[in-house]
Specification:
three-stranded antiparallel beta sheet, two-stranded antiparallel sheet, about 300 residues, globular, mainly alpha
């Protein structure tokens, strides 16, 4: 059996092995987790000394320091991936990482009510600008913010009433101090590569919006550079403040999914529109339908 290398060395060895396998943004996230958390962790621990209790105590310590559950979950996932990579190679004791539970933070923003959703939609329909267009695209097509920003005017086919999604934008690490966020645009494959039907109201909105826009420009920026994610979210925050609620582009995408399911749309069509191969469903807290509604649904079989 091979002699176990320094645990910090193995972290960087694992990171290098992922360079060609994951997106730049994912690689940057792995690098941040290793540099900011795991290197210091392995100053006091080694892979061969790890067990459930050591891992639980470390992750709980991070939560008590104020780290969000999502970041702690990511740290756990990277630690797990590194450990599994070298488990057989160095004869490490097996650790069942599923026993390490991380309680999720309570969501600050609940999904919008139907009334709030309609208020936001009506507000944006009256304004022809990049912020409102981005919001409407999320609400009416379920597109991700990275897909919205990567759209060019030429991706909109008003004759066929389709939006063609072939690229996605992502933030990438920028090592230059004081410089702006850098965005990378990359080609996507199925199921992300897809065509989305444009709903009626959005169709008429786009007709007006595109009237004076160069076809070679990006749709939301009207320039040859993509819109900034943060700018769009801040714009959504400002409108939400005016209307009296808070939401995110991710929430708007999830609400689109829920509206599709509530309308009894074919589940495969919903997944195709969202650009996903599988879909996680969850029951709303304290949800309870009436006996009559259950009978009505069962009788559809």
């Amino acid at each position: 059996m091979k002699q176990l290398l320094n645990s910090q060395t193995l972290c960087f060895e694992w990171l290098r092995s992922k360079k060609e396998d994951v997106k730049p943004s994912t690689y940057n996230k792995y690098e941040m987790i290793i540099n900011n958390y795991l290197i210091s962790f392995f100053e006091k621990n080694t892979l061969e000394q790890l067990n459930i209790e050591v891992i639980k105590q470390y992750l709980m310590k991070l939560i008590n320091k104020g780290l969000s559950s999502s970041i702690v979950q990511s740290i756990k996932n990277v630690l797990k991936a590194i450990y599994i990579t070298y488990e057989d190679q160095y004869g490490l004791n097996h650790i069942d990482f599923s026993l390490v539970k991380i309680e999720q933070d309570k969501k600050e923003n609940e999904y919008l009510t139907d009334k709030q959703f309609n208020q936001l939609h009506q507000y944006c329909m009256k304004e022809k600008n990049d912020i409102c267009l981005s919001i409407l695209l999320a609400m009416d097509t379920g597109m991700m913010i990275g897909e919205i920003c990567a759209l060019k005017v030429s991706d909109i086919d008003l004759d066929k009433q389709l939006i063609h999604i072939s690229k996605r934008t992502q933030r990438v690490k920028n090592d230059e101090k004081g410089s702006k966020t850098v965005y990378d645009i990359y080609d996507v494959e199925w199921p992300i590569l897809r065509d989305i039907t444009i709903p009626k109201e959005l169709f008429f909105y786009l007709q007006e919006y595109l009237d004076c826009v160069d076809k070679d420009c990006y749709l939301t920026s009207c320039q040859d550079v993509v819109s900034d994610f943060t700018k769009l979210q801040r714009g959504l925050d400002r409108i939400g403040h005016i209307l009296g609620f808070k939401t995110t582009f991710k929430d708007l995408r999830n609400m689109y999914k829920e509206r599709c399911l509530r309308s009894c749309m074919d589940i495969h069509i919903v997944m195709e529109l969202l650009g996903v191969q599988s879909m996680k469903l969850s029951l709303p807290e304290n949800y309870k339908s009436s006996d009559e509604e259950k009978k009505k649904q069962i009788n559809k079989l």
